Amino acid sequence: xxxxxxxxxxxxxxxxxxxxxxxxxxxxxxxxxxxxxxxxxxxxxxxxxxxxxxxxxxxxxxxxxxxxxxxxxxxxxxxxxxxxxxxxxxxxxxxxxxxxxxxxxxxxxxxxxxxxxxxxxxxxxxxxxxxxxxxxxxxxxxxxxxxxxxxxxxxxxxxxxxxxxxxxxxxxxxxxxxxxxxxxxxxxxxxxxxxxxxxxxxxxxxxxxxxxxxxxxxxxxxxxxxxxxxxxxxxxxxxxxxxxxxxxxxxxxxxxxxxxxxxxxxxxxxxxxxxxxxxxxxxxxxxxxxxxxxxxxxxxxxxxxxxxxxxxxxxxxxxxxxxxxxxxxxxxxxxxxxxxxxxxxxxx
Length: 348
What we know:
Blueprint: H1 3-22, H2 28-35, H3 39-45, E1 50-55, H4 59-63, E2 70-77, E3 81-87, E4 92-94, E5 98-102, E6 107-111, E7 115-123, E8 126-133, E9 138-148, H5 150-160, H6 187-193, H7 201-208, H8 212-218, E10 224-227, H9 231-242, E11 246-252, E12 255-261, E13 266-269, E14 272-276, E15 280-285, E16 291-297, E17 304-310, E18 316-322, H10 332-341
Antiparallel strand pairs: 1-7, 2-3, 2-9, 3-15, 4-5, 5-6, 6-12, 7-8, 8-9, 10-16, 11-12, 11-18, 13-14, 14-15, 16-17, 17-18
């Protein structure tokens, strides 16, 4: 490390140690916010028990080799929800701007436009690969477990270690002005009903220059209707009791991570409602949910129904579907469950 690197890192290590002593259970993400710095800067500085090595960009090169690590834990989160899934990185495709992982356990959609630094992290003996955006916020993390291939991890870190190890810069995120239309046009409904694939929805929003919530509010209650903000917890409890396999999507601007399957073990801890399976953990801050919708979209395979939760700023916190593959109709048990929550009938 250079002298300038240590000049940047030393004050962060000192302040972090003071805060950690006061709040021993606080997460690095929360301490970074209190310090008005990014999580990535605390990782780079080696705060607490962290020992970090910067890896060479781009992230796509490293992503293509994650399958060599064997069974790991993949973590993606936003401010209000954490999604952890154990498995192997399989069927990895990482292009210039987008990528996909389509394994039976780890199922990801990557949007590489804002990705920047990559770090190999040893935090008190726990090894991981951590991917951050230009502002220093975490996009995705890959944690080694007892089932992982540690020699393969060491080899990957050695292969991609950046020889310079310079202090990383950050680019503060600038909020973009909202230029979307304030209300949905009448044509939205006919275009919505003409969809043959749920993936066409994003194009529909672009065509009409709408935010997701504006579209939901304007399309009609048989296609999207608002429900109580306690429904996510109720739905998870019901699918666990009825053994209904479902899909859970959690994402941020650079990644979406998906779980498919049933769950059984649920637990509330303060504001967090948790799914605690050996292979899948979900931590959902239900106090952050200010808007919840049941959404009904047509497809070639029949109607597809989802439960969507939103934060105060309009961002999606989490999205749930019944477990399904393209070409397969929606599970009737899932459809009946969500339809039963609706005050008004859904289009069918």
